[in-house]
C-alpha cells in the first residue's frame, strides 16, 4: 500500500456528507487491560482484554447553514439520538479492500462549538459507538 | 413504501449530490431530521414495483 496524503476523505453523518467541513479524523479503539495476575516465580503480570470502547473524533469547521455541520450534529446531541457514521480514506472511489470504510451507529455525549476572534471556527466532535455492533471497517 | 426525495442542502445526502433525486425508504426519524434541516425535500411516494403514487407535496 502506498503512503498517502489525506485530502479526499469521506465523512458522513446522519447520511449528510460533511467531508468538506471536516479536516481531521481520529479513530480510537481501546480495550480495557484487566489484570488477572497470579503469584508466579517471575513476578510478571498477566492481562486479559476487557470492555471495548470505540470512538471517532472529527475536527469540524463550524458552519451554521441549513444542512451543514451544526444543523446536522446539534439535534443528534440534543435529542440523545443514535445516528449512522461513516468514514473512508478516499471519497472519490468506492469502498474496497484498499479503501475500507469505517461504519457504525454512534451517539454524541458532548457538543461544544466555540469561536476565537480572528481564527477559523472549528471544534471537535466525538462519535461514541452506540450499540453492540460497534464501529468496524468494511471492505464492500 | 419508497419515497422520492430531492437533495436540497448544500452537500450530498445519502451519497446523492445536491439537486439530484433519489428513491429510498428512510427511517421516519432520520427523514424528519433531514427535512427539518433542509437536506432534502419530499417529491413523491413510490409504490413497490416502481410506479409513482400521489405527490406527497399535495397532501
Care to describe what's here?
The complex is a heterodimer of chains A (140) and B (59). Chain A is mainly beta and 140 residues long. Chain A contains one helix and eight strands. Chain A has one helix spanning 69-78; strands spanning 10-13, 16-17, 22-35, 47-61, 83-88, 101-108, 122-129, 136-138. In chain A, strands 1, 2, 3, 4, 5, 6, 7 and 8 form an eight-stranded antiparallel sheet that branches. In chain A, a hairpin with a 2-residue loop joins β1 and β2 (16-17). Chain A is globular and about 65 Å long. Chain B has 59 residues and is of the alpha+beta class. Chain B has one domain (2-48). Chain B contains one helix and four strands; from the N terminus they run ββαββ. Chain B has one helix at 28-37, and strands at residues 2-7, 21-24, 40-46, 52-55. Chain B has a four-stranded antiparallel sheet, covered by helices on one side. Chains A and B meet through β2 and α1 of A and α1 of B.
Rg value of chain A: 18 Å
SSE series of chain A: EEEEHEEEE
Strand content of chain B: 35-45%
Based on secondary structure, the structural category of chain B is alpha+beta
Oligomer: heterodimer
Major sheet attributes of chain B: 4 strands, antiparallel
User: Can you tell me the residue ranges of chain B where pLDDT is under 50 for at least 5 consecutive residues?
Assistant: 51-59
Low-confidence stretches of chain A: none
Amino acid at each position: 500500500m502506498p503512503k498517502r496524503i489525506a485530502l479526499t476523505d469521506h465523512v458522513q453523518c446522519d447520511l449528510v456528507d460533511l467531508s468538506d467541513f471536516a479536516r481531521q479524523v481520529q479513530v480510537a479503539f481501546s480495550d480495557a487491560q484487566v489484570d488477572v495476575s497470579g503469584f508466579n516465580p517471575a513476578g510478571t503480570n498477566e492481562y486479559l482484554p476487557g470492555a471495548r470502547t470505540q470512538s471517532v473524533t472529527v475536527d469540524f469547521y463550524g458552519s451554521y447553514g441549513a444542512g451543514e455541520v451544526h444543523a446536522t450534529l446539534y439535534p443528534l446531541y440534543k435529542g440523545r439520538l443514535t445516528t449512522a457514521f461513516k468514514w473512508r480514506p478516499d471519497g472519490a472511489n468506492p469502498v474496497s479492500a484498499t479503501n475500507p470504510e469505517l461504519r457504525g451507529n454512534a451517539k454524541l455525549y458532548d457538543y461544544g462549538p466555540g469561536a476565537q476572534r480572528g481564527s477559523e471556527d472549528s471544534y471537535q466532535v466525538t462519535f461514541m459507538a452506540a450499540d453492540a455492533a460497534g464501529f468496524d471497517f468494511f471492505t464492500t | 413504501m419508497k419515497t422520492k426525495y430531492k437533495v436540497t442542502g448544500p452537500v450530498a445526502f445519502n451519497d446523492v449530490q445536491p439537486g439530484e433525486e433519489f428513491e429510498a425508504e428512510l427511517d421516519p426519524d432520520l427523514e424528519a431530521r433531514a427535512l427539518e434541516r433542509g437536506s432534502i425535500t419530499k417529491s413523491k411516494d413510490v409504490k413497490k414495483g416502481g410506479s409513482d403514487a400521489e405527490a406527497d407535496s399535495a397532501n
